[in-house]
Amino acid sequence: MSLLPFRRKSASSDTAVPVLDGILAGYSIEVMPRTAEKISDFRALLPKGTRVYIAHIDGTPIEDMVATAKRLAGEGFDVMPHFPARIIRDRATLADWIARYQGEADVHQALLLGGGVSTPHGDFDNSMQLIETGLFDRAGFTHLHVAGHPEGNRDIDPDGSDAMVMQALHWKQAFSNRTDARMAMATQFAFEAAPVIAWAERLRAEGITLPIHLGIAGPAKLQTLIRFAIACGVGPSLKVLQKRALDVTKLLLPYEPTEILSDLAAHRSSHPDSLIEQIHLFPLGGIKIAAQFAIDHGGPATLPALAQA
């Protein structure tokens, strides 16, 4: 299943030169209402049709989320808001959110996840419970994405294993198999390709074939990335940043994800059946910086806003 196809490197390309366009074509990006407010026109930054996830942080009014979705949809983007289970109080609240998104922004895509709070605000504790309501199916949602955890998640598996995470993925795979929902995993960001590739290969071996939309942190100050990585529970690949921080010549330089993207592009070139389908950018250093990085490194270029209007 391919939601947004890649431009693949041709067989005649010079393999000695890192080629990133095959991995950044069709990328998605994440925003929040407060960060989106700082952008006057997304059409000047993102190619038309880019999938834009809207992160729903606890405490953000649903009105702000829907207004952001309406604006982005109006500018020509595929909008995918977060539905964090633990901050949705009950079935009626979920139905209300779905109705608002559809009625005001014509949204038919959702990222379903547990959410960043430890104690549920109401009836829901995980994304599977949201799916089981049947509300997304009745509302005609076409894409249901779920969270992926290449390096585990101690909120779900406190013992450091991934037993519960894998159990949940098998459930979601079974749901995908028996329905026509177009599903994929949007993952936490990582900084090293090898553990992610090994995780993807393990999933396939266990019968999980949901496409992976791999989270990658966009360019940012090293200190900013380390802070976010620790707060978000990034696993062993955090050592890539920690090693860089020990080099005083690099400490003040912005981090760019060129190495991990180059490694992923090489892997996809040699493994065209990889579950790693596309890249999901976390613009931790700013939306403009992340969007320009994508354009500079082979992602699809945007058009002037007036040309897209």
From TrEMBL:
Entries under InterPro entries matching the protein: FAD-linked_oxidoreductase-like
Keyword field: Oxidoreductase
Record bears the keyword Oxidoreductase: yes
Top-rank taxon: Bacteria
One of the record's GO molecular function terms: oxidoreductase activity
Record SUPFAM superfamilies: FAD-linked oxidoreductase
Name recorded for this polypeptide: Methylenetetrahydrofolate reductase
Natural source organism: Pseudooceanicola sediminis
